[in-house]
Amino acid sequence: MARELVILKLGGSVITDKSKPFAASVETIGRLSEEIAHANFKPMAIVHGGGSFGHSVAAEHRISKGYEGSGQLMGFAKTRQAMMQLNKLVTDSLISHGIAAVSLQPSAFIITANGRIVDLNTNIIEKLLGKDLVPVLYGDAVMDEKMGFTILSGDQIAARLAIALNASRIVLAVDVDGVYTADPKLDSSAKLIGEMRLRELRELVKELGENRKVADVTGQMLGKIEETVSALENGVSIAVVNGLKPGRLLQALKNRRFIGTIIRP
Amino acid sequence: MARELVILKLGGSVITDKSKPFAASVETIGRLSEEIAHANFKPMAIVHGGGSFGHSVAAEHRISKGYEGSGQLMGFAKTRQAMMQLNKLVTDSLISHGIAAVSLQPSAFIITANGRIVDLNTNIIEKLLGKDLVPVLYGDAVMDEKMGFTILSGDQIAARLAIALNASRIVLAVDVDGVYTADPKLDSSAKLIGEMRLRELRELVKELGENRKVADVTGQMLGKIEETVSALENGVSIAVVNGLKPGRLLQALKNRRFIGTIIRP
Questions:
Q1: Lesser CB count within 10 Å: N end or C end of chain A?
Q2: Nearest CA to B234 among B206, B265, B204?
């Protein structure tokens, strides 16, 4: 039986402007903080993406490819700082809205092997949740048992956290309205899928895997959707909402009817 | 047999102005970064104190006393942010001087019981050191098995790290020249002790414990000295240098003759 715990994932493309390096969407972060404070949902853990922080420096030094030589080390160090800088912005904003938000650096306690989390020690997170504190994690540059180091996505952290903590729901705040039947920009008959089952998602992922065009078409939801499959298999529901449209995150957190997509196990 | 690893502890009173909240000594941090870069000592891990960051907010909310009620939660969250802010300043400065410095949040992987570190997982730190990266830890507000939460000092982290990593030396950069025979401000016959043994330190600590006046007299070195006793017992040498005086840290890191105090196991 899942517990009343929500893992909220704030997409990097929601909280930053991905077209410019180090461009935090300060107003959006403020509004989302307000909606989270208003929802007053406890217990909750937050995970955010890296967006335009870290991405350019990580790409420049091929951090996600793993350790290739000492020439990457300064790039690795700078990537870590960039991730931390965005996390500080987000956590400061949450605190200024009255949320007892506590930054938790993923790379300080998570190791991957070939990019996948090896084991997730939830001891400290459970202690934070037990005191009504809200842990705030993020996509980070982590040490990897096989590759030396790599990039760990916020999506993978959110899915693994949900499973390890036996959460009832993951709320994904993204920059699109939800999962569509086709690309609404290209196909006027495209419809937002209000509710779907894991089985339907599996078919979609399979289709996406076979047809890369479709992957693009659904608004690059492939990675996010794929990461959530493991959580769904473990009984976690997924709510996908547009974090750029005011009020939708609040509705989703309050578990009211909301514009977006619910994926049930 | 100890390995050629140095744990460098930068005192909070060296890198901040303790008389004012959130007053980083930016110039000193820059100069120390330069000396560390110049020494080019590897492998090395750095730990810094909290100084005027975090101290006032932690004191206001009695964070070191442990969890007393939900009224402390925002204070706990703010203390964490303050610690992280100072750490970001220090790590940014080290990076800007060409050191591949990697921030490592202690509260993300260390739990205490009644203020003492329960177990120290060095897996990630070893991986960082193995890649010639320089982990930068700091005094932090951590979860505690008995007290709910508390403050963990940079001094305790430095001593425990030195033992767990089998380091050869701890270098303590403090705001005094070293350990004196008496308070040089009160006693003109006071002499800087260039070299001492654990046995002599034990006597001094015992004396300090019995006579609080003496504790003040040695420049509030009691806490720092007491924390290092466990490291000394495990074969770690301690070098105490004045971080406020240019060049002394460099000399100590290069293991040359330096003005300060060496304490041998």
A1: N
A2: B265
Q: Is residue A23 part of a domain?
A: yes
In a domain, B1, yes or no: no
Q: What is the pLDDT of residues B51-77, one digit of tens each?
A: 888 888 899 999 999 999 999 999 999
Q: Which residues of A touch B95 (CB under 8 A)?
A: 74, 77-78, 81
Considering only alpha carbons, which residue of chain A is nearest residue B126?
Answer: A143
Its ipTM equals 0.94
Number of A/B CB contacts below 8 angstroms equals: 105
Tell me, yes or no, whether A101 lies in a domain: yes
3-state secondary structure of B256: coil
Q: Is B19 on the interface with A (CB under 8 A)?
A: no
B154-188 as b/e: b if 16+ CB within 10 A: bbbbbbbbbbbbebbbbbbbbbbbbbbeeebeeee
Residues of A in contact with B100 (CB under 8 A): 73-74, 76-77
In this complex, do A123 and B101 lie within 8 Å of one another by their Cβ atoms? no
pLDDT digits (tens, 9 = 90+) for B208-258: 666 555 444 444 566 667 788 899 999 999 999 999 999 999 999 997 789
Chain A 108-127, CB below 8 Å of chain B: which residues? Answer: 108-109, 111, 121, 123-124, 127
Query: Number of structural domains, chain A?
Result: 1
Q: State pLDDT tens for residues A73-124.
A: 999 999 999 999 999 999 999 999 999 999 999 999 999 999 999 989 999 9
Q: Which domain holds residue B117?
A: 6-264
Q: CATH code at A229?
A: 3.40.1160.10
Which residues of chain A from 133 to 152 reach within 8 Å of chain B, CB to CB?
133, 143, 148-149
Reported as type and span, the H/E element at residue A6 is: strand A3-10
Residue A215 in this model has a pLDDT that exceeds 50 = no
Contacts of B206 (CB under 8 A, 6+ apart): none
Question: What is the rounded distance in angstroms from the CA atom of residue B14 to the CA atom of residue B176?
Answer: 9
